[in-house]
Amino acid sequence: IDDVVKIQAFIRANKARDDYKTLINAENPPMAVVRKFVHLLDHSDQDFQEELELMRLREEVVTNIRSNQQLENDLNLMDIKIGLLVKNKITLQEVVSHSKKLTKKNKTQLSDMMMMNKQRGGLKALSKEKRVKLEAYQHLFYLLQTNPTYLAKLIFQMPQNKSTKFMDSVIFTLYNYASNQREEYLLLKLFKTALQEEIKSKVDQMKEIVTGNPTVIKMVVSFHRGARGQNALRQILAPVVKEIMDDKTLNIKTDPVDIYKGWVNQMETETGEASKLPYDVTPEQAMAHEEVRTRLEASIKNMKSITDKFLSAIIVSVDKIPYGMRFISKVLKDTLHEKFPDSTEDELLK
User: From residue 248, how far is each of 245, 254, 263, 292 by CA, in Å?
Assistant: First the structure.
């Protein structure tokens, strides 16, 4: 019997080895062979451990990136301050040394010259040539305002790092930050034309409108971060935010370790004795406790409920969202539909 068992084991091992070779090397292995090895695809503890390790590493990378960005910003600011310090020191020394050279007569002449320059300025003092030039500028700005094609083409040709400064210093100023209805209408026309131009020229895949950080979208967001946008945001979301902040019993932690520590602290507070459970645990060890799993499920349920409240608040308050944002959303949807006619409604709405 022992010999028979050995022979059977040997035959089975050889058969399993042949099947595995067929699975690895054959282009289309038979179903019977595939079925034997399907169980290997089941999730194991090792997969879970690797997933946790990957999440930890991702968190670490993101933290380091943020830290590096902050350091770079601080370094740039320090460079500017050092530069200003050196420049101002030199300028101050020059002024002091130069003022010593001025005699009383020179100071009087300098004062007279400054007074003449002051009198020379102003619109009344314009020469004929300067008046012509001023009128030409007025026509230029009128054309730039009323025909958005020129600025629209210029906006998305700007490098990303310079576009924000360009928009704040030139475009928003040119439209006087949409302080009246006419200027707001013209600025929206510019946003519309620029967005259509950018999508037609630069967006090759639907997802690029999110991942590519389009200049025009950035510009629209930047514009609506002013008082109007903030007031709308406060009206729409303030009640929900206040309700959540006032609810001291609300628990929306979804980290098993945090939930476990909170549970241990609560037990110690209630009993007045140190808990026998270890304080520092891994997520898997924390999840081994029934209480932690129950609390985690409750937290996830709370989180979903809160998310629904925010979503409902936004949906029922569409009319309170600034018209400019809704209009640009419509332009975005229509232009994307035109560029990608085969895309589904769900993809467009996302």
Answer: 7, 17, 16, 20
Do the beta carbons of residue 268 and residue 275 sit within 8 Å?
A: yes
Q: What percent of the chain has pLDDT over 70?
A: 86
Cα 92 → chain centroid:
43
In three-state form (DSSP H/G/I as H, E/B as E, the rest C), the secondary structure along 168-213 is HHHHHHHCHHHCCHHHHHHHHHHHHHHHHHHHHHHCCCCCHHHHCC
Rounded Cα gap, residues 41 and 34, in angstroms = 11
Calpha distance 133→28 (Å, rounded):
79
CB 187 within 8 A of CB 175: yes
pLDDT at 110 over 60: no
Distance CA 156, CA 202 (A): 9
* Integer Cα distance of 288 and 241 in angstroms: 34
Cα separations in angstroms, 55 against 48, 129, 145: 11, 68, 50
Per-residue pLDDT for 113 more than 60? no
State the pLDDT at residue 109: 58
Give the rounded percent of residues in the chain with a pLDDT score beyond 90. Answer: 23
